[in-house]
Amino acid sequence: MAISLTEAAADHVRRSLEKRGKGEGVRLGVKTTGCSGLGYVLEYVDDLLDSDCVFESHGLKVVVDEDSLDFLDGTELDFVREGINEGFKFNNPNVRGECGCGESFSV
Amino acid sequence: MKKKTMSLVQIVEPDAPAASGQPRLAVGIDLGTTNSLIATVREGQVVPLPDEQGCFALASAVRYLQDDSVSVGHDARQCASCDPLNCILSVKRLIGRGVEDVQQLGEQMPYRFQAGESHMPLIETVQGAKSPVEVSAEILKVLRHRGELALDGDLFGAVITVPAYFDDAQRQATKDAATLAGIKVLRLLNEPTAAAVAYGLDRQAEGVVVVYDLGGGTFDVSILRLSQGVFEVLATGGDSALGGDDFDHVVADWIVQQSGSSTDLSPGEQRTLLRMACDLKEALSQAESVTASYGDWQGELTRSRFEQLIEPLVSRSLRACRRAVRDSGIDTGEVTAVVMVGGSTRVPMVRERVAQLFDCQPLTDIDPDKVVAMGAAIQADILAGNQSGNNDLLLLDVNPLSLGLETMGELVEKIIPRNTTIPVSRTQDFTTARDGQTAMALHVVQGERELVSDCRSLARFELRGIPPMVAGAAKIRVTFQVDADGLLSVTAREARSGVEAHVEVKPSYGLSDEAVSRMLEESMAHAEDDRKARGLREQQVNAGRLLETVRVALQTDGDLLDVAERALIDEQLELLEQLASADDQGAIARQVQKVNQATHEFASRRMDATVRRAFAGRQLEEL
């Protein structure tokens, strides 16, 4: 399996990286948070770590650390507009339940 | 029921705390001579963190035991008299100091010292030789552990306070101790600045702040000028052997005298007596009179009698204040705030006398024992990024002494003048002094004087691999960079070849506070001498350069001169060489003129000859 970006997500990541002026790509990860336990992390990548898995999508590097990959494998990152909000959405096949606060999920 | 969709995610900077996430655990640490403290910002409130017994102050005492364990704090201090060699007290007086400095202090300290590598003094203990950095790290480890227990997680980092007069070496050593204790140093902060921050004085537009810090064993006074969010240290002063402990001693002496008991006391009796004296002192901050009992004797100590007893000590601190005011060049009328630090400032008389001196009611609302750690905690919270949008509150400091390079003639070229706001980076271009010079020695010095020998040497390094060029053609760009902690790194780079050399200044030991203030005083007192000395050196360098140029020319083109002409030049050169080694600046300058005149004709003949040589054998059209 792999991690991929939709075209909309790739466009937005590329624009963001250009605006920032530096960075290898984006990092997807999970952290413990919220009421269902896990939350998503999305950050710029400046330095690759030994434990990182790197995927290529639409010519962009998508980086996930080993530990997070168990929870994220198969995820497609999308960029959507919901009402007045714009942002990235994780389409994650591993998710069993999402919490009421919208911050966390469980697998 | 409709399930709420997952909220959308934005890309964030790596390492930045997520907006909805936990704040980073950042602490402020006051690493004191007698006691150390740790504080943090929790839910917007600054709170000092206590140990399991609810005690805030950790005695800055470290004991190395036979069984390889280390005890830190009150228990270690208790053992100072029974195990003096392995109980290290007041290690702050040793950190970043050289063997020579320590030997001077050594008279008051019972430890056995040995010289370690790079001049660092080592203390012999049952667990082997320990450096002041290692001893300080033991104290910091205990505080780190306390912080992690209280905050329930790994510390992100800490702001650690140091006295304003700490130099590069002492700051670096403090930072090393933190690293050794597994603490990431977000920033070193001057103690008086931290106290001012705790009172929120950094949010004022400008003003002059006096910080009066009367601790257990040391007294420090600092005069800071705040302008546009930058604290500039105008002057520091103090007395490294004056503190609240001295108050206890005079009270104890009074008890012995009044009760008529023997002055020949055992160490145990002495401790009991001092403990009692300390209790009486503290009680008198509230009460007008207290009852003392010692053995069969009972007596009354009134506040006014107590004030008579401590009067000479308080006056001593005020004298140091007046000296600092004089050094700073301000008028006491300009003082906008006085901050009280240290437990002994609870004594009402101290407050009154300080208020009188500066004609300004001192700030005393925050616990004077904790105010420094609390200010550091506020700064740590900002640096950890927990106060979003408040980055402009980032405090700036200044470097206490000028930093520069040695140039020809042992003169100092100041690159970063004293009181420049840090962090700072300054660049200056230098060049080679001789034809074909391929290496350059750089000597980094710190101090206010004009001559290298009067300043403190921080580091030496070499730039090699400069392509051979005529003197003055190479362009060597030297960059001095001082980071937010006041630590220096120097880079030299030759522009054409790109060769580069770099040094992080980690001096083996530092200057004492007395040495720093002495150097400052000397620079004022010697300003005139220094200008003269500089002028003389410049003339000497001029003369030397001229001598060398003429001699090289004589070697290659000596045949352009007849014997008489040659003799005249040689005579003038001889005279110049003699004068250059003496110290009459005017005479050297005049002789340089004479040599220039004497060689004028020679120079034009050489020019002609060179031109002829260059054009020889060429057709006019080629030119």
UniProtKB/TrEMBL annotation, chain A:
GO terms for molecular function: 2 iron, 2 sulfur cluster binding; metal ion binding. One of its GO terms (biological process) is iron-sulfur cluster assembly. Keywords: Iron, Metal-binding. InterPro entries: ATAP (IPR016092), ATAP_core_dom (IPR000361), Fe-S_cluster_asmbl/transfer (IPR050322), FeS_cluster_insertion_CS (IPR017870), HesB-like_dom_sf (IPR035903), IscA_proteobact (IPR011302). Its cofactor is Fe cation. Pfam families: Fe-S_biosyn. It comes from the Bacteria. Transmembrane segments: none annotated. This is Iron-binding protein IscA.
UniProtKB/TrEMBL annotation, chain B:
It comes from Thiopseudomonas denitrificans. Belongs to the heat shock protein 70 family. SUPFAM superfamilies: Actin-like ATPase domain, Heat shock protein 70kD (HSP70), C-terminal subdomain, Heat shock protein 70kD (HSP70), peptide-binding domain. CDD domains: ASKHA_NBD_HSP70_HscA. One of its GO terms (molecular function) is ATP binding. InterPro entries: ATPase_NBD, Heat_shock_70_CS, HscA_NBD, HSP70_C_sf, HSP70_peptide-bd_sf, Hsp_70_fam, ISC_FeS_clus_asmbl_HscA. GO terms for biological process: iron-sulfur cluster assembly. Keywords: ATP-binding, Chaperone, Nucleotide-binding. The gene is hscA. It holds the Pfam family HSP70. This is Chaperone protein HscA homolog. HAMAP family: HscA.
